[in-house]
Specification:
This protein is mainly alpha-helical. It has one domain. It is about 80% helix and about 0% strand. Helix 2 crosses helix 4, helix 2 crosses helix 8 and helix 2 crosses helix 10. The radius of gyration is 20 Å and the shape is globular. It starts with a helix and ends with a helix.
Length: about 300
Amino acid sequence: MSLSREQKLGGVFAASAYTLWGVAPLYFKQIDFIAAPEILVHRIVWSCLLLLLVLLALKQGAKLMHLLCQPRLMCWLLFTAVILGANWGLFIWAVNSDHMLDASLGYYINPLLNVLLGLLFLGERLRRLQWLALGLAATGVLIQVIIFGSIPWVALALAGSFAVYGLLRKKLAVEALTGLFVESLLLLPLAVLYWLLFADSSAVNMLNNTPGLNLLLVAAALVTTVPLLCFIAGARRLQLSTMGFFQYIGPSLMFIFGVWLYHEPLRPASLLTFGFIWLALLIYSWDAWRHHRHQRNLLRSAVC
């Protein structure tokens, strides 16, 4: 298989992953009569089961057992599992509580927070345009806080939790699929405990549900796992800088759904903040593309 074909296939996988993440709110809206913590329980339980089947199918049992026998690494994965679970739960709550635009803003901010955390904790150096992009994003948030007196806490919490999760997982020597299964496994006892003792919706007893509702609940595993598998397949074929250009598909779809499908109000404060974030991302993407092209030209010159 030629390199260009591999790259095209990687692009298909990457676009599929971010598109699936972008349309995930449509799924959660179908079960918005169930409390967010209970939906989170189903997401954890069924994702854990599906990921186990995938790992067994890929014959990753030995790697999994090796990971489970490392107490220090397991402690770190417990920490990342709590962060990931909080992010999942907040996202579900945001979508089903008519805060989809806040979720969209959060995932627009996320790549810029990744850059900032790379500067603070990984010793990465920022280029001038990256500094400008960070400044514009911070300005957009500050304008909303100072002039309009509102803090986009949902967006900041989603962006911050996912950025911290990404930073920690980057530092841990754990494969994405195996790590996600272990994180789900560590959250499983809490999820089952909540299901048995605290969940009180009309859908809590699956024996009393319609087959359609039960299928929707079990589909939480697919909503979680399929985009991740596509992302892994894309990341194996593309450079991370190239993958970055696909990451705006998700929040853009959320924005479209929030405004035109679910008619969430786009307040002036939020619109101004979105404007600054979009400008920041435009500059950030332009700089990333220019830097990627420069590095590629240098590599070609070295080969010649």
